[in-house]
Amino acid sequence: MTVRAYIRHPADMPIELALIHGVEGASNDPCLAQTYDVSLGGLSFSCAQALTVDTYVTIRIPIVTPPYEVKARVVWCMESSEGHEAGIQFCNTEDAYQARMVEQICHIEHYRKWIQQIEGRELDTEVAAQEWIGKYAKDFPSLA
Description:
Thrombin, subunit H; alpha+beta; 35% strand
């Protein structure tokens, strides 16, 4: 049984990642990926390409404005039925807290789309945020 250093929280944010320039064989083209979870230490995701452990990547979350961007280190990567699964470690704690804020924004956007689909109500982001906070913020896991 593996003991995790940090509690993980589910997430399904679309992300873009690119190898940091200066790494031999690094591509300038970002790879699209889908996150599995976010923790204080980093995040895990699925992607098409294999990533080399201990290389640095730039993670970009385009769903927010302005897009959130952070530098991270690849800590593991393995083949999966969908290509590859990988885990990255944030370079500092502030980056982890910012990623959690982005995760909350993604939850609010999911809620906005869900309300539109289920109830047929069109909510702007601010109203969706107010409703989501009122209904779900108390249950949103903290990083502690």
